[in-house]
Specification:
The protein is built from 13 helices and seven strands. It is an alpha/beta fold. Strands 3-2-1-4-5-7-6 form a seven-stranded mixed beta sheet, sandwiched between helices. Helix 12 links the parallel strand 4 and strand 5. The longest helix is centred in the first third of the chain and has 28 residues. The structure holds S-adenosylmethionine. S-adenosylmethionine (SAM) binds next to strand 1, helix 8 and strand 2.
């Protein structure tokens, strides 16, 4: 047929042109045809799958790296084992061996910590940046130091991030309960990163093991005794400010200890010693008197199911006449600010 436009146009309009192929395609793709062809297509699929499997298991892979006669499946298995073997030493940087807690938080945990930090500090960009920097610092210090930092990864990262973002009114920091002094060293670093000039005071009995009234604390996961030498080694990792840290051995409720370290107003007080309700109540009552106007109090393990005494003491304390305002919670730490 001569396909002049004048002749073809009416045929296209009436669906009769082109004469064969589109109609054929429409026939094959129609619902009825697809249903009728389904068993054949499934049969073809099965045959292809069988062929591929057979080739995979029987193909002898002849490369210089593989044992003679290895099949593709053998090679895949060997590669998998090699990868698993390589992964194990990398995992040692982050797993819980020698410190009790894994340092590999999931993405939702990280996101939640950043969101909580942003709420408590009002600084979303700072929260994201500090979480990343604090996380790297935690891994580095535990790799290099003696002992460990106590607690879950997000709680530690949260505290290290929050304190500089809350912009304490001065650079005097008191840590009640230090264990190995490694958290104090990390906090010094985070404050310096924010351009601050931190001066740390520590109170801890340094009794060889962690003391917790009413709780049995077994041998530490790190295998390191809780003693002054370990604390000094860790603080030395934080440069001049670490080396200049005041370490007061003793209990925070001891009047002599209190007298020795109550010589200044603190911009930051970390309450992380005796976790019983009575112990936390005593520390909060002391903190009321030695915190600087506008100063920050960090209540560690706040809301932690293992340590109910902390929230109990906090609630009782907040019902009294207090200088503190509750700012909020990040992971398992509560934050308070003293009135100016
Ligand atoms: C949970 S650990 C501290 C962890 C440390 N702040 C950190 O972040 O790695 C508690 C420490 O407080 C000490 N402690 C217990 N009772 C105390 C008290 N009344 N005064 C001061 N420290 C106390 C324990 O012996 C232990 O070393």
């Amino acid at each position: 047929m001569c396909a002049s436009p004048a002749r073809v146009l009416p045929l296209v309009v009436s669906g009769l042109w082109p004469p064969y192929r589109p109609r054929m395609r429409a026939l094959i793709t129609s619902k009825t045809a697809r249903r009728a062809l389904r068993p054949i297509v499934e049969l073809l699929d099965q045959r292809i799958e069988r062929q591929v499997r057979r080739v995979m298991t029987n193909t002898v892979v002849n490369t210089t790296r593989n044992a003679p006669g290895s099949t593709a499946a053998d090679v895949t298995q060997q590669e998998l084992q090699k990868l698993r073997g390589r992964q194990r030493p990398l995992e040692l940087f982050f797993d819980g061996t020698g410190r009790g807690a894994s340092r590999l938080p999931s993405a939702p945990h990280l996101d939640r910590t950043i969101a909580e930090l942003a709420r408590v500090t009002g600084d979303k960009d700072g929260a994201e940046r500090n979480v990343a920097q604090a996380f790297r610092l935690l891994i580095a210090l535990e790799a290099l130091g003696v002992g460990r930092i106590a607690g879950g990864t997000m709680n530690i990262v949260g505290k290290l991030s929050a304190v500089p973002l809350l912009d304490p009114p001065n650079d005097e920091i008191l840590e009640i309960g230090t264990l190995y002094g490694m958290f104090g060293a990390a906090l010094i670093r985070m404050m310096e990163r924010a351009g601050r000039d931190p001066r740390l005071t520590i109170v801890d009995p340094l009794a060889g093991t962690q003391l917790q009234p009413g709780a049995t604390m077994g041998d530490d996961a790190s295998g390191t005794p809780v003693q002054g030498a370990a604390v000094r080694t860790n603080l030395s990792l934080a440069g001049a400010a670490g080396a200049a840290t005041r370490i007061q051995q003793g209990f925070s409720e001891d009047p002599e200890v209190r007298a020795l370290v109550s010589d200044r107003s603190y911009g930051v007080i970390v309450v992380d010693g005796d976790h019983s309700a009575a112990g936390v109540a005593a520390d909060l009552e002391w903190a009321e008197r030695i915190v600087a106007p506008g100063g920050i109090v960090v209540l560690d393990d706040f809301g932690h199911p293992k340590w109910p005494g902390i929230k109990e003491a906090f609630e009782k304390h907040m019902a009294t006449e207090t200088r503190f305002t509750y700012l909020g919670q990040v992971a398992h730490s509560g934050y308070l600010r003293a009135s100016a």
